[in-house]
Design a protein that fits this description.
The chain is built from five helices and four strands; from the N terminus they run αβββααααβ. The chain is of the alpha+beta class. It has one domain: Sufe protein. Chain: A (Alpha-Beta Complex), CATH 3.90.1010.
């Protein structure tokens, strides 16, 4: 069963969903894990309190990129309140495999980036930007 989930993660890594940039986003944030070099930038369009569109760009390990792909699939169309209530366990459930402590920061970087975008990345024009650094604890290989 783990092999099935590993293939699923590798597929999201090789062909990520929602990979790109929204030209005039309502929310934008760049998150990074300086210990391993993973980077994620999320851009969101919000309409009537819901995520109308979400895109991400980034580079890093299969876990961080697959997590971003799965997370963006999950939040599209949801209310901002529902998105704000997402927990690390929700993201780990999306991944579907046991994540070692060394890879936890990689798996949760997209959620951390999304949380910062929602709380600090509200923008007018041009899009605001910031960097969320997930730098406490071990990161493992990139």
């Amino acid at each position: 069963m783990d092999d099935l989930y590993r293939d699923y993660i590798l597929e999201h890594y090789r062909r990520p969903h929602n990979f790109g940039v929204i030209e005039s986003p309502d929310l934008r944030w760049e998150g990074a894990n300086p210990l391993c070099g993973d980077r994620i930038t999320m851009t969101l369009s919000v309409r009537d309190g819901h995520v109308a569109d979400v895109e991400f760009t980034g580079r890093g390990c299969a876990i961080s990129q697959a997590s971003a792909s799965l997370l963006t699939d999950e939040i599209r169309g949801k209310s901002l309140d529902d998105v704000a209530r997402m927990t690390p366990d929700d993201v780990l459930d999306l991944l579907g495999i046991e994540i070692s402590p060394a890879r936890l920061k990689c798996a949760l970087l997209p959620l951390d980036t999304l949380s910062h975008a929602m709380s600090e990345g509200a923008t007018g024009t041009p899009a605001g930007s910031g960097v969320a650094a997930a730098d406490d604890g071990p990161a493992g290989d990139a």
